[in-house]
Amino acid sequence: MRALRIVFFGTPEFALPTLDALVASPHSVVGVVSQPDRPRGRGQKTTSTPVKARAAKAGLPILQPERLKDPTFLHALAALAADLGVVVAYGRILTEDVLNTPRLGMVNVHASLLPKFRGAAPVHRAVIAGEAVTGVTIMRVVKALDAGPMLATMSRPIGIDESSADVERELARLGADVLQSTLDDLAAGRVIETPQDERQATYAPRLTKDDGIIDWEWPAERIHNLIRGLHPWPHAFAFLNGRRFILLRSTVVAGAQSAAAPGTIVQAAGDQLRVDTGDGVLQLKQVQVEGKRPMSAREFLAGHQIAPGARLGPSP
Predict the structure, then answer these.
(1) How are beta strands 236-240 and 133-140 bridged, if at all?
(2) For residue range 92-128, what is the model confidence (pLDDT) as tens digits?
(3) Is residue 313 situated within a structural domain?
(4) Could you give the CA distance from residue 90 to residue 48 in angstroms, rounded to a whole number?
(5) CATH of the domain at 296
(6) Which residues have C-beta within 8 Å of that of residue 41, sequence separation ≥ 6?
(7) Distance of alpha carbon 109 from alpha carbon 98, whole angstroms
(8) Residue 188: how many CB atoms within 10 A of its CB?
(9) What string of DSSP letters covers 168-198?
């Protein structure tokens, strides 16, 4: 097998297992491209992206262009003389000049079973939709969004109580593994590219805070899927006694039937914090009053006087 010269495009933690696997592989990572450093967190302190920090630790050349059309960046990218580009959650649509720079083009590790859930938030949207199975796809990068031919796929089940954070963590590792075998096939010239079925395509748009507003008329299962799908960000929320009430973990109470108005707290004792919905009962396991730390239901109830009959609503 001929070792490949690889330029890696990535930004968040999701990309780290693939970068680590490439660095440890027989292939050569000749450079890393990551988003520019931005102010982050409450203090708005400018920090390195996770990929930049890992690349610096490994002593790899790093490029952080503000504009992908910048001639200085394109010249530096070409100077790396990469055989192949590998993209994992870089966060920008790549230009034609960038796509054409590596000799063998560019491939992407995408966190869904394409053509389902193309776009920026595939893991979160799959969990919110109540999907039972997800996976990773290695695809060739083309100008159209996540529409390139597929080189390899691998699936995994989604547990009924798994959050997006749980699923994404596992898909990051799975994607790194699948990419390694795909690179071997590419280097040996035996990879098979399968076109996507456009008729089956669905989209996973970027998340916003407004995605977290709960309608308690929904069935308990749908609300549960929203809560776990929006964890760790931007979180599902309601309002309780005029304050924003963030819902972090939940479970559907098996066999329980709704008896009160949707959004009514029907049990609030010990570790049982249960809410009626449009269909079924939802148990809240971890919550957070805005501005406070996350708490288990037991901790929350120990410090707050909440009586059955209190209502959770979509606004203060």
Answers:
(1) unpaired
(2) 999 999 999 999 999 999 999 999 999 999 999 999 9
(3) no
(4) 14
(5) 3.10.25.10
(6) 47
(7) 17
(8) 10
(9) HHHHHHHHHHHHHHHHHHHHHT----B---G
- Which domain CATH number covers 55? 3.40.50.170
Is 173 found in the same domain as 52? Answer: yes
Q: What is residue 69's three-state secondary structure?
A: coil
Q: Pairing relation of β-strands 84-88 and 38-40?
A: unpaired
Average pLDDT over residues 160-168: 97
Report field, pTM of the whole predicted structure over 0.85: yes
CA 168 to chain centre: 6
Q: Which two tokens stand for residue 159?
A: 């547990």
Dihedral sign for Cα 77, 10, 154, 181, please. Answer: positive
CA distance 12 to 31: 17
Range name among 41-45, 58-62, 222-226 with the lowest pLDDT average: 41-45
State the pLDDT at residue 122: 98
User: What's the CA gap between 168 and 175, in Å, rounded?
Assistant: 10
CA distances from residue 281 to 95, 234, 240 in whole angstroms, order as listed: 49, 23, 18
Determine the structural domain holding residue 140 and report its residue range: 5-200
H or E element in which residue 134 lies:
strand 133-140
Res 40 pLDDT > 90? no
With CA atoms as reference, report the closest residue to 168 among 245, 106, 88: 88
Cα dihedral 43, 44, 45, 48, rounded to 10, equals 130
Q: Please state, rounded to an integer, the average pLDDT across all residues of the chain.
A: 95
Would you say residue 39 has pLDDT above 90? no
Per-residue pLDDT at 1 exceeds 90 = no
